[in-house]
Amino acid sequence: MHFGLFYQLPCAPDQSEPIRYNETIEQLVLADQLGFDIAWLAELHFFRPFSVMPAPLYVAVAAAQRTRQIRFGTGVILVPFHHPLRIAEETAVADILTGGRLDVGVGRGTIALHFQGFGVSREESRARFEEGLEVIVKAWTSDHLEHNGRYFEFPDTALAPKPVQKPHPPLRIAANSPETAEFAGLHNYDVMVASPINPMPGFFEHVRKYRNALSGAGHVQQARDVAALFFVSPGNNLEQVRAQFEPSMMHYFRTIGEQARVGGRGQYEGTYQYLQQVRERAANIGWDEVERTMGVFGPGDECVRRINQIHDGAHIDQLVCWFNPGGRVPHKAVMAAMEHFAAKVMPAVRPLGRSEPGASGPKA
Question: Is the pTM above the cut of 0.90?
Fold first, then answer.
């Protein structure tokens, strides 16, 4: 089992943007010292209470200068909003500057405000994502490429520099909709699945559908990697954890609704219908439901029990820990939670691996 962290970087009215960034870097330095394997950094735009991190590669490069082992992943680059050659270039540079410690997570985007801000049609998101991903991989791996597609067209072009990792940095898709999970399986990609979007027990079925798509396309299930994003907050007892974590968690869920309202109507059509349920859940959710369906909370032995439950149900390879979803847990308390988790939980569940015959070991 490998362990990651997730950062979205929400910023409340009484918080400072520079301080939020500086504290994040400090936490990443500590994570490196504690033995976390990877930090996933989100790309989000245009709504400060939800995030002030539109450019996660900058954060990865900055943190890489102060760390030695931990990898950095984009969680995720929103492909429809960028020229794919630009993504290929910038990730190649980031791979060099992180010393080959970059994972590239990609997605098609879900938030209406993003599409409105960049002037991109949501109806085109999947086609833009699939075409962009094809160009990115070819640019990384080919000496020269030309492309004549629906959205992008360019003559013979050479990408420079190339990534340090060969044939390219590890690729992972955020697979939270049924359609994207199927796409990732059909095309043999690693995935990240978020429990706030796919809470347990549906989480297990969602991962199963992805693996069924892998098998149906003739790919080896055990060769692929599933990262699972969960809220995580260890502590001496559940009451203490709740007092510290619940305000941040509820701030996160409130901003989902606020962001959706700003985005207006018509944002739950077509392949985005599943987001209606996500928003409705966010509007009505409380601690008990979160603790039961998307949380790893409490004393070390209880966290170990829950991680074993998640692993038994989905055979995950990586647990991605979200220690501060709403940005309201104080910085020192986040650091203490990371230390508690590394000392009391990680050693007990690190040996977990896939139980299927012939399985390969987990990857960062």
Answer: yes
